Amino acid sequence: MDGALIVDKPAGMTSHDVVASVRKLAGTRRVGHTGTLDPFATGVLVVLVDKATRLMQFLSASEKEYDAVIRLGYATDTGDITGRPLPTNATAPAAERLAKQEIEAAIASLRGEIEQVPPMYSAKKFQGRKLYELARRGQQIERQAALVKVRAFEAMEKGGVFTKLNDDGTCDLTVRVVCSAGTYVRTLAEDLGKRLGIGAHLAELRRTCAGHFKMEQANSLSRLRDLAAAHSLNEAVISPDQILSYLPALNLGDDEVRRISNGIDVQCEPKFENQEHVRLRDESGRLIAVGVYDERKCAVHPKVVLSN
Questions:
Q1: CB-based contact 8:209 (threshold 8 Å)
Q2: For the chain, what are the domain ranges?
Q3: Per-residue pLDDT tens over the stretch 226-244
Q4: CATH assignment of 247-305?
Q5: Which pLDDT belongs to residue 118?
Q6: What three-state secondary structure class fits 204?
Q7: Residue in 2, 8, 38, 191 annotated catalytic
């Protein structure tokens, strides 16, 4: 069962938990995902199965889109609602007194290419250990800032209300974020709070899009279990060729399929950009490999081969 399953990850499960569930349903150990979601987060998780796991390198760097709720009023040690509240500054303004224009200006300052320090409570590794494992042991590691791109970061009125006042004096701000891979929405929430001079953390997070995979394509785990029980799990599988549908394609004859399957270049018309990735398909449209076009040779070299 080669392909992708788009899963609507429920809250309370890790991304690894979802992978483990799919392994059982698909009956294979060769399963992986293309971008971690925190346990409290929900939404689109792209899970690759069997030979399609070889395509992960073409998906992991894809842009992501989120709907989120940022709670203004206090920060937490994890940057999200699962953490412990941190002490607030006595001189910090009250959350409900923040003006709409002030919040929008702070949001605008976090759009574009920005430097972001990965949070301690993250799956990023330091000397082979995940940062959150070190954080739980009380260790703090100096992290290097990384350049990320926030293409969209905007407040969304909910029920005609810009911010929702909570009973404890905090305010909830609903936002939409479109960002490059490796961007931490938790850190965006924390940085927004810092710019406003008030603590903030992420209260809710839902991934609505990962690359060209959207929420409309996502399946609940319960639906996947039902399909597996009916021996119909393939109904939910996206083929390897569809997974990389955003790449240009080259259809091959039988002799060319044999060459590509053996790691040998194939000549082609100069219709691709130099070093561009190309889907290499047989006459039935099945993905055989992903190649790289060499302008100098007018040939495509197989980079990842799926067929035997």
A1: no
A2: 3-62+212-242, 64-210, 247-305
A3: 999 999 999 999 999 999 9
A4: 2.30.130.10
A5: 84
A6: strand
A7: 38
